[in-house]
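User: Sequence in, structure out. Go.
Assistant: Echoing your sequence, followed by the structure tokens.
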Amino acid sequence: MAVLTLTAGAMANDSIAVTRSEEPLSVFYQNADENFILYPTQNMYIFILLDTRNGRLELVQWNTKLSSRTRFTLSSQSHIGYDEEEIPGRFILTPTTNQYNFIMLDKLNGRTWQVQWSTNPKEHKVLEIY
């Protein structure tokens, strides 16, 4: 999957350069200070919003038609223990070869979840991988 990245240029007018890369998405989304990250899916209208502090997930659908813009909760529960601290950058998503599935990783303890999204909210799943 190609990814477009924006990088600040060192030009006199401070313009922004757009570059294209074939690197996996997880390479671009590992900044430790971000509370929220939007991960693109292979569906051009669908993104997954990850709260990197606790693993909560939402599906974000954009469209030029107001009636087609929406957000669905994929996982409203926190994926950290009750006595653990929310730390920005703790969770990341990595795409799989199946366009409807991602793997969510807790970078502090190595726990993993299968995140399955769908345009049908009844088919959303977040299942821990033991």
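User: And one key feature?
Assistant: The first strand starts at residue 3 and ends at 8.
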